[in-house]
């Protein structure tokens, strides 16, 4: 009996054969278990001999089972180590390296340059109340500027007669939000997306602006001009000609628009040369009514504000002639004009 089972255990070629052997010998109805049950029917003398012998056999078989199981596991591991391997010197599969979009790149540059001038970043939502987008900026309901802005309106539920929210047409509502939350004095810029129903080589229905707001006790138009010129020469890395044109915005008085000298030839745009001008921003001294909407006393504080087209700054700096290409998501374009991360 002993040698039959020991051989069977030692010869088990895998775990399941080994398990079968264990059940056949030591399971409930296993041969050895049945023999142990027969002890009860024996005479005391027989039992005294058979009992210890069977127990010893049971222990011996159990140890043999454990030993065989370990040996099988070791062999399996050896086999895996032999067959499963990896060539760590093989070249890896080519990965896809993304690029940073020129608009993101320029936004970061603008933030960094204004940070040097002491400006911090403020933010506001793209879906804005019409009060913040218009009224608070001195553009009441029937003001012609509302019509000029080609505004996208959000839909209200049937029967809801409150004025609809809008996709903000400019970053200027962030001025009001910041004034209300933090008061004066302040120096902030607010970059972000804005929306207008407009589409051609220099207009897309979604584009990017960065708003600037500086409030203090004696801030003047001269500070505005110095700030913008300092920024432009740092941004373009050279002195570029700018043109400050008297203009009109309901939320500034006086107001000025700023153009940058450039040339558009053979599908190329170059900054700082030629006879063309690209408008890049609107600006002016914050209107007293706007300060009041922001809960700031216009007899105590004044300041300037500007709203700059980020995409247009990118067109000029990197010589990209058509604004529409910025938002086509053409991978070849993105790889060409994008910046490595
Ligand atoms: N909000 C104006 C626009 O989008 C730009 C602007 C901002 C003008 C701040 C003056 C002051 O055209």
UniProtKB/TrEMBL annotation:
A molecular function annotated in GO for this UniProt entry is:
tRNA binding
Q: How does it assemble?
A: Tetramer of two alpha and two beta subunits.
Q: Which terms in the GO cellular component ontology are assigned?
A: cytoplasm
Q: What is its EC number?
A: 6.1.1.20
Protein name as catalogued: Phenylalanine--tRNA ligase alpha subunit
Question: Residues in domain Aminoacyl-transfer RNA synthetases class-II family profile?
Answer: 113-341
Q: Domain of life, per the record?
A: Bacteria
Q: Among its keywords, does the record have ATP-binding?
A: yes
Q: Which reaction does it catalyse?
A: tRNA(Phe) + L-phenylalanine + ATP = L-phenylalanyl-tRNA(Phe) + AMP + diphosphate + H(+)
